[in-house]
Amino acid sequence: MGTQVIMPQLGESVVEGKVSRWLKQVGDPVKLYEPILEVETDKVTTEVTAAGEGTLLKLYANEGDVVKAGTLIAFIGAAGEVGPQAGERSDQLPPSTDLPGGQLSRRSADTGGEKGEAPRGNGSGARISPVVARIASEHQVDLALVRGSGEGGRVTKKDILAYVEQRGSPHPEGEATGVEKLEAWEQPGLGELFRPTEELFGKAAPTSAGPIAPAAAPPVAPGDVLPLNSMRKAIANHMVMSKRVSPHVTTVFEVDLSKVVAHRSQNKTAFEQDGTKLTFTPYFALATIAALKKYPLVNSSWSDSGVVLHRTVNLGMAVSLGEEGLIVPVIKNADSLNLLGLARTVNDLADRARRKQLKPDEVQGGTFTMTNHGTSGSLFATPIINQPQCGILGVGMIQKRVVVVTHNDVDAIAIRPMVYLGLTFDHRILDGHSADNFVAAIKELLESWT
Amino acid sequence: MTEKTLIEGIREAMDEELARDDTVFITGEDVGPRGGVFRATLGLFDKHGPTRVIDSPLAELSIVAVGIGAAMNGLRPICEIQFADFIQPAYNQIVNEAARMYYRTGGTFTVPLVIRAPYGGGIGGGLYHSQSIEATYAHVPGLKVVIPSNPHDAKGLLKSAVRDNNPVLFLEPKKGYRLIKGDVPDEDYTVPLGQAQITREGSDISVYAYGMMHYYCRQAADEVAQDGIDVELVDLRTLNPLDQDTVLSSFQKTGKALIVYEDNRFLGYGAEIAALLAEEGFNYMDAPILRVAGPDVPAVPYSHPLQDWFMPNPQKIAAAMRKLARY
User: Fold this and answer.
1) pLDDT score recorded for residue B251
2) pLDDT at A428 over 70
3) Which of the residues of B are catalytic?
């Protein structure tokens, strides 16, 4: 029998992983749950453990290889046993054929020696024929957007020619698949690591496909081509998809942080004694969480059957990884944490995000996201929603500004630490009024911090 | 135009060539007064006389060797091999002598020889009367290999073969001798060697065939047309030299290829077409190249059920067409 080692799907938006290091070699004995390799994705680096014990018989991927999630990468069995062929997964081998008009198949069986039947698609329709590849490249077609009518959903020459022909219109068929992509993105509360990728990406692999080709790409000025890494591709796909599926509106509030600054200076040392560095982030997080509890409609997701209100707050925190990209670790059940708990969690997640040490489920399932773009000096911004969430809060740089304050009916000029908070929200779910109420609640909490 | 059978087309070609050019003569087993075992030369002995239509000993080596000698000395022999199955004793003469003579003698000698041989199965002929030998001989440079699929082409191609200065192996689908009928012009005409013909225009899949299989492919194409599958059918007609342009231009159009031949599959003629498409047509390929061919067993069985199992037929071909169209 033996045990197959499958490239796990490390995060629901992740479609491939890189074998960064084999911890076991062919012939090595392997115990149950013993780590056998390290896998690196755009989000995390993690170890894959053995689901069975025996001898590592065969490796199907080399260190450095990037393979699709769900791919067989190694085989564990009794010494001397033979592993399956690469690309095979015994649990998904198609039955020989159930094609109608089975004359030929019968013939195949009859003649015994007959080989070279048309290779069957693996069900995901991922096979791209040379002519389709050529037309796709000539016309800059993202094949994920083309509906395949061939065997197993394969995109045939006719399909792509028809697609190219009707693409003249500004909103090609891709619009429809965009909605499907939404389903494939991080759905809160789902996190099975080993869910077959076909289920998610079989229809129209949203993130694995190549560059985002606009319908009619303008000519590109000459220059050097920077190859896309998987994180860049995932970000690019997600951003385009997000802008397409939801109408973005941004509203900006200005908040006086005097009380927060005062609270922080008072408590900094105490937190440090607890081993936690107190930054401003947990204040914004705590205020946001409280506002989300007050306005649950903001802590939601759009679906065709209705707006899904999430019971808990899983707060995503965008962490920049420099030019490489960014990652959004998620504080699960953030509504159960106090300032100290949030401070600890935020520091820990940010630190591990930068070291690529996050676990897969720590980057999934967010219900609302915060991005601290002020750390790079930005005053306010219009962030893009992390689908399928309803909104994203951008926190600008805290800056001492001259403001007019009114005390005992007397106006005065004062110097106050100020910050702009920008909420980008999905106008399908929220209107300006309800969105403003939500940000106003954050503002009130921050300005009245005790 | 008159409707004729395939064998009538062949007979007329020989009759007219005998009349047109007195260096042409026919030799083979029983080709004389008896008119050949299939009656291909029926009446020619009476009409053209015993010096033009000559019975040979039952020795294929000698039939071809006599032909080569005569051809090198100014005559244009048509040698009949009674069944293609029997041609192998003459293999050395055909391959080592006839095919290479022009090359070996630096152009001094040509061998304007035609070897006619009925080939193919499905006629209850068993092991010694059913073989397809085209792949073996199409492999040989210097030898032209021609297979007609209808009376018009049979007559026109055979005339071209007689007039060609190279040795030509002219293989005749014997099952189609009297089965395949078609219009044949009354006036003199030829069909050039080395040119395939698109016998049915289509846009979904390209089907390549020759001889009897071409006949079956037409029927299969009609059948799958009812399912909306638009087959383009290419009759190769000359297997060597192959009309690569026609083969490739059809593939360029459809991107899908099916090759049908009744010879056994392994290293059969379809393998060469598949290789050509893979090498020269890769950028147009939209599906794996499929073949329908005989199984790799030593011979066509004599038993009728087993013969049916061996032979490609319109149903098997139609199934492959559907499969390819669906891919």
Assistant:
1) 97
2) yes
3) 129
Domain boundary among B184, B219, B249: B184
For A159-205, write each residue's pLDDT tens digit.
999 888 887 544 444 444 333 333 333 333 333 344 444 444 444 44
Q: Among A98, A114, A122, pick the best mutation site for testing chain B contact (most B Cβ within 10 A).
A: A114
Phi, psi (rounded to 5 degrees) for B298? -60, -25
Selecting from B295, B315, B319 the residue whose C-beta is nearest the C-beta of A114 gives B295
Together in a domain, B201 and B179: no
- Our CA-based measurement puts residue A208 at a distance from the nearest CA of chain B, in whole angstroms, of 22
Q: How far apart are CA B314 and CA B296, in angstroms?
A: 20
Q: Do A111 and B266 touch (CB under 8 A)?
A: no
Domain with B208, as residue range(s), is: 197-326
Hey, what are A164's tokens? Answer: 């190219």
Q: Are residues B75 and B220 in the same domain?
A: no
Question: What CATH number does the domain containing B234 carry?
Answer: 3.40.50.920
Domain boundary among B138, B160, B184: B184
Annotated active-site residue A426? The verdict is no
- A121 vs B141: CA distance, rounded Å: 40
pLDDT over 70 (residue A320): yes
Task: Please state the rounded mean pLDDT for residues A306-326.
Answer: 89
Find the residue in B nearest to A136 (Cα).
B283
Burial A96-123 (b: 16+ CB within 10 A, else e): eeebebebbbebbeebeebeebbebbbe
pLDDT digits 0-9 by tens, B242-258: 999 999 999 999 999 99
**Within this chain, do residues B259 and B165 fall inside the same structural domain, yes or no?**
no
Q: Minimal Cα distance from B253: which residue of A?
A: A157
Contacts of A102 in chain B (CB under 8 A): 319
- Total structural domains within chain B: 2
Is B286's CB within 8 Å of A111's CB?
no
Residue A1's pLDDT is what? 63
CATH code for position B109: 3.40.50.970
Provide the 8-state DSSP code for A42. Answer: S
* Cα B266 to Cα A144: distance, rounded to the nearest angstrom: 38
The yes-or-no answer on residue A248 being catalytic is no
Instruction: Report pTM.
Output: 0.52
Side-chain-facing half-sphere of B185: CA atoms under 13 Å: 8
- Determine contact: B152 vs chain A, CB below 8 A: no
Between A332 and A221, name the one with better pLDDT: A332
Distance (Å) from the C-alpha of residue A83 to the closest C-alpha of chain B?
27
* ipTM score assigned to the predicted complex: 0.74
CB contact under 8 A, B290 and A99: no
